[in-house]
Amino acid sequence: MQKDKKPDPNAKSAASEATAGRALSSSIKVLGVLRQSGSTYLVANSAGAPLDRAIRIPAGLLAKANAGQLERFILESELSCLLSHLDIKDISVQLRKAYTNSSSVVVASPGQHTFIVEGKEYQLLAHNGCFRWLGLAPGDTTVTLIGEAASHAKPTKSLDDFNNVLTPIVASSPRLMLVLLVALAAMLVGPLKLPPLAVLLVGRSST
To answer: Residue 103: which residues within 8 A CB-CB, separation 6 or more?
Structure first.
């Protein structure tokens, strides 16, 4: 007779962890890791929530010994829905895994930023809700802008306001009008493939 095999505790643990991972990913979206002012955060938000409501979880709370502090943090945030699906220990394990394995970076302020990816230094510039890598970009690294880095500059005045101010000034000064017309004409010489034109103006210095 064959003896009944005992359930493999490792397989059971792996299945439980996979279930916890699916429950977490269905409730929240992990955006990546944010490093700012000497502190490090795992940034996430509730599924479907806009980026301006992203939650910054201090990396120190992800340590095993800080599960109680992490639970209090989650209870007071918009991620509290997690506690209705998962035990705090499972949440801690999954968030810690997301933090360790994340290849996504989060930028919260405009300006130039430095990142170390696989031992190499990379520079990124964030401005007016957009970003670009200065030089080579690290492979398989995604970037998410939040906070001030994601905001776009909003002009306080329109082109009509500019025209209303400039038009009376130009109309009252024929010389300024001539300068502007010559400058605009010079810009059209290349695109319209016009032959070069030289104009010699002669007159008294007072005119």
So the answer is: 140, 141, 142
